[in-house]
Design goal:
By secondary structure, the chain is of the alpha/beta class. It has one domain: Periplasmic binding protein-like II (D-Maltodextrin-Binding Protein, domain 2), CATH 3.40.190.10. It is built from 5 helices and 6 strands; from the N terminus they run H-E-E-H-E-H-H-E-H-E-E. The chain has a 6-stranded mixed beta sheet. The longest helix has 20 residues. 26% of the residues are buried.
Length: 156
């Protein structure tokens, strides 16, 4: 029956969109970083390229996915509070004049993001929790780890 078919397709699409929004994002760090906890306010500054150095003096590099990527919706809403185009402009401005050491690096995939964080001293990045490997350290955001109740970067 056509009506049942439309209903089934609609329910599948709603299920996919819910799954896409409900993922948790983790803040991962290069293993040599000494910071274990970052407040949400500190994370926002890092993501906007406003934090240049860690307390130990290492330069900060934020690795992220392309703001236009559907995977970035949660980060755009909860961290940046900005549109895709505003974040793209912010990245360009943050990297202006920083050819040898950009503040923000764009990764093509979660796997690429994790690899860049692993190999860049001082790097951190936001990645789907299911893409985490043993080559990075997961940092607490606001005192919580991903999947803990009250975690800030949980997709509802």
């Amino acid at each position: 029956m056509p009506g049942q078919r439309v209903l089934a397709i609609t329910l599948m699409v709603l299920g996919w969109s819910t799954a896409a929004v409900s993922k948790d994002v983790a803040l991962v760090s290069n293993k040599t970083n000494t910071v274990a906890v970052v407040s949400l306010a500190e994370l926002v500054k890092i993501c906007k390229g406003q934090t240049n150095r860690w307390p130990d003096g290492k330069p900060v590099t934020f690795v992220t996915r392309d703001p236009a990527s559907p995977d970035m919706r949660l980060v755009l809403e909860k961290v940046y509070g900005m549109s895709k185009s505003e974040v793209t402009a912010l990245i360009t401005a943050a990297n202006h004049g920083r050819v040898n050491h950009p503040a923000i690096v764009i990764a093509n995939s979660d796997e690429d993001l994790v690899r860049k964080v692993e190999t860049t001293p001082g790097a951190v990045g936001l990645v789907d929790v299911y893409s985490i490997t043993g080559g990075v350290t997961v940092l607490r955001v606001g005192g919580k780890l991903p999947l803990e109740p009250g975690y800030t970067l949980h997709g509802n």
